[in-house]
Specification:
The structure is a single chain. By secondary structure, this protein is mainly α. It folds into two domains: 122 residues; 95 residues, Cytochrome Bc1 Complex, Chain D, domain 2, CATH 1.10.760. Helices cover 52% and strands 5% of the residues. It has a two-stranded antiparallel sheet.
Length: 272
């Protein structure tokens, strides 16, 4: 067992769940002893003699744990108190209780020394800060890669300058040869007019770029571009609609009319 295993063992002993399990087990054992003790007392009062056992027995163990006097000797420890007929015995503290008290003191010393004077464990505030830092790193990593989670079903048109600039750079390298530098079209269709062959929404364009159009000679760009890059170049292509090309290719496909969301009177009033 190496030092890491020992550290993990000590940490597991201090875990609230493990402590609760241990405490529950101890209470169950003490309850069983108490019940057995009460049954033995009832047997003595009823005149039932316990069977004699040789060597070790539960009775001897019970006696060593409780260190109480037998029923027939209770007068020797009877105090001169009487509360409405209730009398008090001056029994010794049970050894299990005394040893439990000593063990709790020893455990508190070990706990204090381990958590406050070594670097092997962290206090609650330090543990909290460490966990929050790890979660923040995970969150930052997620946000950094969130763009890779987009697909044709979740894509929305990007309008910020950084995304459009990135999309243009991707377009210039991969799309310009077939669609012209200004999007006017060449081998491929014209992007500057309002006519489309496969749909003009961001989802439509994203899907065409991603999966390609094999029968038209367009390859699936998903093999060369990641999801974020496809999203950016698709948004840039949409931004070319309505611009003026030097030598625009004749319109192809159908006129694309963007869907317009009609607000209800209630929604319109909320917008205002």
């Amino acid at each position: 067992m190496n030092s890491n295993d020992i550290n993990q063992l000590i940490l597991s002993l201090g875990d609230p769940i493990n402590l609760l399990i241990g405490l529950t087990g101890l209470i169950a054992i003490l309850t069983a002893w108490s019940v057995n003790k009460a049954l033995n007392s009832m047997k003595v009062k009823m005149g039932i003699k316990p069977k004699e056992r040789k060597g070790w027995s539960f009775k001897s163990l019970n006696q060593s744990m409780w260190d109480d006097v037998p029923m027939e000797a209770e007068r020797d420890v009877l105090l001169d108190h009487n509360y409405d007929g209730i009398q008090e015995l001056d029994n010794n503290l049970p050894p299990w209780w005394i040893w439990g008290f000593y063990m709790s003191i020893a455990w508190s010393v070990i706990y204090f020394g381990y958590y406050h004077f070594t670097e092997n464990a962290q206090l609650q505030d330090a543990e909290f800060n460490t966990e929050m830092a790890a979660r923040e790193a995970t969150r930052a990593d997620y946000l950094a890669n969130a763009g890779q989670l987009v697909d044709e079903s979740t894509a929305v048109q990007l309008l910020d300058e950084a995304s459009l600039a990135s999309g243009k750079a991707i377009y210039d390298v991969n799309c310009m040869a077939c669609h012209a530098a200004d999007g006017g079209g060449s081998v491929g269709p014209n992007f500057t007019d309002e006519y489309t062959i496969h749909g003009g929404s961001i989802s439509d364009i994203f899907a065409v770029v991603k999966y390609g159009v094999i029968e038209k000679g367009m390859i699936p760009w998903a093999d060369q571009l990641n999801a974020q890059e496809i999203h950016e170049v698709s948004s840039y292509i949409m931004s070319l609609v309505g611009t003026t090309a030097v030598a625009p290719k004749a319109a192809q496909g159908k006129l694309y009319v963007p869907e317009v969301t009609v607000l209800s009177d209630e929604s319109a009033s909320l917008e205002e």
